[in-house]
Amino acid sequence: MASLGNPKNTIQILQKYRLQTQKKYGQNFLVDTRILEKIIEAAQITRQDFVLEIGPGIGTMTQYLCEAAGAVAAVEIDAHLIPVLEDTLSGYSNIEILNADILKVDIAKLAEEKNGGKPFKVVANLPYYITTPILMRLLESRVPVESITIMVQKEVADRMQAKPGTKDYGALSLAVQYFAKPEVIVQVPPGCFLPQPKVGSSVVRLTRYEKPPVETEDEALMFSMIRASFNQRRKTLVNGLCNFGQFHLEKEEIKECICGLGFPENVRGEALTLEQFARLANEFKKKICIK
Ligand code: SAM
Questions:
Q1: Minimal-distance CA residue to ligand 1 atom 17
Q2: In CA terms, which of 96, 160, 266, 285 is 20 to 30 Å from 129?
Q3: Quick one: which atom of ligand 1 is closest to the CA of 105?
Q4: What values do phi and psi take at 151, rounded to 5?
């Protein structure tokens, strides 16, 4: 029976193992059963599922995952937490605990070994200091992730869902929306964690598209262009792309591509939709190929 999702039991575990929460690892443990239940429900986990949990901490959400899923692999960087996890998860036979940095784990290999390469689900209360690199690895690499249900900083959740022309719109919005459908499930105040973070949080579910909603001939080129456009947010799109210096096109050629799609010369990257970035990337590709 899951037992840790409250302050009293969490404090007991921390005292039993003389643990200090590690700020450098973004350790804010969930102590609210209502939020834990919402996460499990949003992830739509069944006994057929293999779930990857990133950063199990003392095993709070892991207990819920073990009760709902067929099998769970939990990757925790902090070696001090491994004996704790072995204790708090001792009642479950469907868990594998790995002491590793998730950014160094070969997730495709893990999914192949544990789940025969079939689609799996990721569920995590993420360490906020590395949310974007974790997410980009899961989305950009061709691992068979079906959905990602994660706790993130509220501001990051806003960026994932942002639309063109808004202050939150940027490279993360475009990358997430190219690969997945983002939905905010619930807002989570600091009081639901121990220790309390300084920022508000949101649980987000990303359901991966089987096929991206727009077509581009060169995905890598499109994402380089997106990064270049938002690197220098206050510059025009022409200057952002030109200053990036990696597209091997003259400023006039970049202008031709942008104006050829019907945009004014001074348009900024933040005005373009995902589909327009895809079309612009195709125009770039044509020009680069005939050089
Ligand atoms: N899942 C627990 C919960 O909800 O109470 C803990 C969540 S806490 C926000 C983030 C966890 O991720 C911590 O246990 C931390 O040690 C772990 N972590 C931080 N960086 C990591 C990394 N690079 N790879 C794997 N785990 C990491």
A1: 55
A2: 96
A3: 24
A4: -90, 125
Q: In ligand 1, which atom is closest to the CA atom of 57?
A: 14
Domain limits of the chain? Answer: 7-208, 219-290
CATH number of 219-290: 1.10.8.100
Pick the CATH number of 7-208 from 3.40.50.150, 3.40.720.10, 3.10.320.10, 2.30.130.10: 3.40.50.150
Pocket of ligand 1 (CB under 6 A): 25-30, 54-57, 60-61, 75-78, 101-103, 125, 127, 130
> Which helix (H) or strand (E) element contains residue 242?
helix 237-244
**pLDDT, tens digit, 9 for 90 and up, residues 81-140:** 999 999 999 999 999 999 999 999 999 999 999 999 999 999 999 999 999 999 999 998
Residue 142: pLDDT over 80: no
User: Using only C-alpha atoms, what is the Rg of the chain?
Assistant: 21
pLDDT at 233 over 90: no
- What pTM did the predictor assign? 0.93
Provide the strand spans (E) within the chain: 29-30, 50-54, 71-76, 95-99, 120-125, 145-153, 180-188, 193-194, 201-208
Q: Which of 155, 156, 108 is nearest to 132 (CA)?
A: 156
Which residue's CA is the nearest one to ligand 1's atom 19? Answer: 25
For residue 149, which phi and psi values (nearest 5 degrees)?
A: -115, 115
Distance 237 CA to ligand 1 centre (A): 38
Q: What 3-state DSSP class applies to 52?
A: strand
